[in-house]
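A sample follows:
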Amino acid sequence: MPTTIITEDTIVSSGAAHFFSSISHPQTLWLTPGTILAQDGNIGAGSASTIFGASHIDNPSLLIQGEVFNANATAINVRGDGSEVSIGATGTVWAAQDGVFLGETSSGNRVINEGSITGRYGSAIDGESGSGEVINSGSIWAGTHGVAFHGGESTVLNYGTIWSDDHGVVLGGVENRVTNSGRIESGEEAVRFESDRNSLVNEGTLSGAGLAAVYLDGRFSEVSNSGNIFGDFAAVWGMGGRIGLVNSGSIEGSGRAVRLEGGYNAVSNSGVLSGGSGGVELRDGNSVLHNTGQITGGTATTSSMNAAVVLQSDGNTLGNDGEIVQESSHSSGVGVAMGHGIGNRLVNTGTIVSTNGTALQLAGDDSRVINHGDISGGGTIGRAIHVLFNPAFGPGGDTGAYIRNTGTVETENFWAITYEASIGKM
């Protein structure tokens, strides 16, 4: 039978309320409007939890419609596998440390929040090295992590608000999934994946004030955005390679909108990618960018080597059917920069523009450009196409660039196409 606590007043505990510690089978705790309050604790001067479940009890269930409060430690500590914690619309969980702690290695846990969960100096929901699922349509606020699981195969579905000083959602292990149609905002990354094969679907707003709004530290992850993503250094930053990004919304970064490293990445954009120094940077080669939307860069800086699109190393392919614009006030601003490498390809049926510099810069060996659209350089010394070639670089050393034009290649005040032998790097 479920254990039901019905209170319109306050239950004050000087330590932990061990509601599950002596129960050997699945049990439900139902807290109707009222308060369970732990003030000082009795284990290590304030280290006890307000609600505590022993680790040997699986499938415990809590339904909170009132208030659970702990001024010194964790509010809810449920350690068994298959735990379910439900915070109703009138429920509030507030703790100085973790709002809800789900055990060091437990799995199959679920938190459903329609009310509010706060971990003032800790995490709002902390799954440690375990795995679980969070469904949030209320508010989650934390001093460190809004939601954290490090065991892999975890899911976060957010329809409400998640806010943290550190990370909004941080997931370790493989095959995690985040779906957001609400708002996740943080002082560092809004969403951080720390391993391989993760998935993010954003239909709401993600905002991060640290390195990125979305940080992907592994390989084979996928990001789909039809909402808004705002970041600082980069809005979306991937490190491991083999990352797929599909954008039909808006991704904006103070530095880059998108920066993907590790090679073998793929970006498809039908929305807006906008960065202070550039829209997209794909590093380490063998990557593909297809644009039918708008990619812009350079509006927030005058530093050298700004480019709306940067493709580095070998074997990159850019297909542009949309608009790529570099708006830097610095004369070195470039629309598309293909860095030193072999066999980079560009097919343009759209527009590539630099308002105060070179529209397309090619560096390396065996670059191929087919233009059926418009490539336009601006400013005093802006070229439409500038080829930087090192004769000592690459096999053959003399293949340079192949350019086929059936569209428009033009500049305001300088030569349309220039060729320069160089031994430097872009």
About this structure: The longest strand covers residues 358-363.
